[in-house]
From TrEMBL:
Residues spanning the membrane: 42-61, 82-110, 116-137
InterPro entries: DUF6691
Protein name: Membrane protein
Record keywords, A-Z: Membrane, Transmembrane, Transmembrane helix
């Protein structure tokens, strides 16, 4: 049941991304082009998501546990450090360059565009490069 709910959630998210036009990198580029062909629709999509999330969290936190798990899986780190800032900056730069974020690129795979595949390969490579760097730094600390 947990996997079915995860699939349903992903389908709803993908449909929202598709209906809002956020699978189209031109929408993202036009949002960032405030001096030219500025398109505020991304701000409305994000605003709508924030409102729905705000309401959803208020409802969810009234429960003792989620529907399909014994407890809430909450990240414990709450420190704003160099890793968080650096990762956020890299995410934002990549989003601005490619016009995709991973959340919008995954549903965009269905469009068959080579740019989407290239973006997802680059994101995946970035994950592995980060792991490699972390392993090297961890080894250097213990040596």
């Amino acid at each position: 049941m947990k996997l079915i709910f995860a699939l349903f959630t992903g389908l709803v998210f993908g449909a929202g991304i598709a209906l809002s036009g956020m699978m189209n990198p031109a929408k993202v580029f036009n949002f960032f082009d405030v001096a030219g062909t500025w398109d505020p629709s991304l701000a409305f999509v994000m605003g709508g998501a924030v409102i729905i999330t705000f309401i959803g969290y208020r409802l969810v936190w009234r429960r003792d546990a989620p529907f399909f798990d014994g407890r809430f899986q909450i990240p414990t780190p709450n420190v704003i450090d160099a890793r968080l800032i650096g990762g956020s900056a890299i995410f934002g730069i990549g989003w601005g360059i490619a016009g995709f974020c991973p959340g919008a690129a995954i549903p965009a795979v269905g469009t068959g565009r080579w740019e989407v595949a290239l973006f997802l390969v680059a994101v995946t490579a970035g994950f592995y490069v980060r792991r490699l760097i972390a392993a090297i730094l961890s080894t250097a600390k213990t040596a």
